[in-house]
């Protein structure tokens, strides 16, 4: 090696090839090149520096795998790991492709699901994990993203997670936990640093209902097939829709739009400012309610007395 120490190359596997400095080709028909690279899987290829294909203790791993870059490992069959090197603090941040047919690239990424793909990176591997694609056929990219659901997709940054099967989370601090759900947009991020450990509080759009959709800023769609969009809206009823600012659609098939409106009756519709369906079914409430300071009902956390300025109720 450059310091004068012996660094022989070893071609151990039949039909294997080792070249460079201190490389080892143990797998059948494997190829190790570069510096201190190791190939244990059959027909595998390791290049770069300190890369590994397969596992010395399990000859079934790393078949047809490819590892390149610095410090990376490809143990899945037909997997590919590339990138690696170090984070901004100089800590080793290798990539790992452990799922069969998986692909990991970037800095500190992990692709453990079958046919999964992880790309992106991290600035501090010790406290901020890189993208993780653990679900089969999943895709995670960006910074602090995780796709754990089957065929899920997480992209963006800062705790964006897609845990539902066939879910999609994108943006900043979004979460798609319902099956076939979609969360996109952004929200507030609260970061706690205690004794060097970073904890991130998720405040972005959340789509927890199956087939739900949450988009915008700090929206939540928890009902099945619910849709929440805008700013601080909540759609908890089945097939409900909340849009605007601080609106709530809790009734099944309800629709709340405007500002500080509540559609809590089944098939109800509220719009305007501070309107409420009062749990009635099939009503349409629109207009504006003015605030008087006599009494204290609660509308989205605001203490007030609500008197209708004009109110139209249409029975559907």
TrEMBL record:
Keywords on record: Membrane, Transmembrane, Transmembrane helix
Polar residues bias spans: 11-27, 40-54, 264-274
Name of the protein: Exosporium leader peptide
Keyword Transmembrane helix: yes
Membrane spanning stretches: 298-315
Domain of life: Bacteria
Annotated spans, Disordered: 1-115, 149-184, 219-274
């Amino acid at each position: 090696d450059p310091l004068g120490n012996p660094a022989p190359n070893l071609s151990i596997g039949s039909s294997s090839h080792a070249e460079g400095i201190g490389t080892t080709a143990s797998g059948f028909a494997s190829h190790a090149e570069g510096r201190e690279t190791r190939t244990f899987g059959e027909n595998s290829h390791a290049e770069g520096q300190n890369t590994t294909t397969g596992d010395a203790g399990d000859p079934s791993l790393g078949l047809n795998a490819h590892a390149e870059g610095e410090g990376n490992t490809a143990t899945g069959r037909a997997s590919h790991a590339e990138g690696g090197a170090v984070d901004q603090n100089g800590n080793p941040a290798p990539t790992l492709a452990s799922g069969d047919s998986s692909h990991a690239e970037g800095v500190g990424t992990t692709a453990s699901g079958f046919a999964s793909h992880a790309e992106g990176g991290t600035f501090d591997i010790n406290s901020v994990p890189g993208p993780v694609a653990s679900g089969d056929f999943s895709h995670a990219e960006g910074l602090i993203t995780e796709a754990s659901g089957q065929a899920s997709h997480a992209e963006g940054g800062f705790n964006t997670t897609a845990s539902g099967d066939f879910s999609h989370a994108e943006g900043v601090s979004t979460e798609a936990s319902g099956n076939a759900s979609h969360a996109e947009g952004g929200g507030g991020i609260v970061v706690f640093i205690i004794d060097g450990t970073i904890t991130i509080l998720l405040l972005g759009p959340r789509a927890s209902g199956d087939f739900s959709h949450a988009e915008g800023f700090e929206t939540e769609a928890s009902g099945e097939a619910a849709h929440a969009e805008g700013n601080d809206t909540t759609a908890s009823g089945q097939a409900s829709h909340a849009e605007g600012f601080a609106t709530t659609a809790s009734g099944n098939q309800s629709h709340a739009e405007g500002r500080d409106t509540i559609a809590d009756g089944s098939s109800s519709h509220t719009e305007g400012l501070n309107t409420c369906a009062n749990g009635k079914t099939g009503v349409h409430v629109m207009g504006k309610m003015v605030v008087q300071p006599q009494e204290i009902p609660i509308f989205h956390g605001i203490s007030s007395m609500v008197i209708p300025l004009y109110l139209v109720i249409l029975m559907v």
